[in-house]
Amino acid sequence: MPVPMDAFDDVRPAAECLDLLAEPVAAAIRDWRGSVPVQELRYVDTDPAIADTELLVTHHGAWLLEQSANCVVVAGKRGGEVTLAACLVLSHTRVDVNGTVRRHLGARKASFAPVDTAVGDSGMEYGGITPIGLPGGWPVLVDAAVADVPYALIGSGSRRGKLIVPGKALAELPGATVLDGLGVR
């Protein structure tokens, strides 16, 4: 089931809303490459007070759990080196940080990155971090279930607004790797 666009009051092509996006996200959309045309990416104006998934679901309906994806920043550590990675999973699952992520990064230990690091290094707001527009070199780990959805509702780089993006486009982002079992219940 695709994201029902009529569930939101204000849905527009993301390329027409660059001024509403965090700068790294706007830059990525401005320079969009890939098999999915940029016109298929949509911006949804949402209230920042309900940006968290649980509140958004309460406001718009339970269907969002199956059609929205959360992006979290993970820090993988091995020796003195830290690798930051973005992990994208459907909202009704959680990231398998100590299994799938740790093994994929070749890390001895993996944990959620500190908020200051995630926000400072991504250039995005906490609660709105998205895999679109992340710094070059960051691994973007996409759960296979996210890659398979026709459209996913994701962050826009800020707490105000969301993006509706085809799963296929998320799987093709720079640095993206699609992994089975990244999102677990």
UniProtKB/TrEMBL annotation:
SUPFAM superfamilies with a match to the protein in the record: YbaK/ProRS associated domain
Superkingdom, natural source: Bacteria
- Write one Pfam family the protein is assigned to: tRNA_edit
Keyword Transcription tagged: no
Question: Residue ranges of the YbaK/aminoacyl-tRNA synthetase-associated domain?
Answer: 50-172
Coiled-coil intervals: none
Alphabetized UniProt keyword annotations: Aminoacyl-tRNA synthetase, Ligase
Q: Does the keyword Signal apply?
A: no
Which one of the record's GO molecular function terms can you name?
aminoacyl-tRNA ligase activity
This one is known as Prolyl-tRNA synthetase
Q: Which organism is it from?
A: Streptomyces chattanoogensis
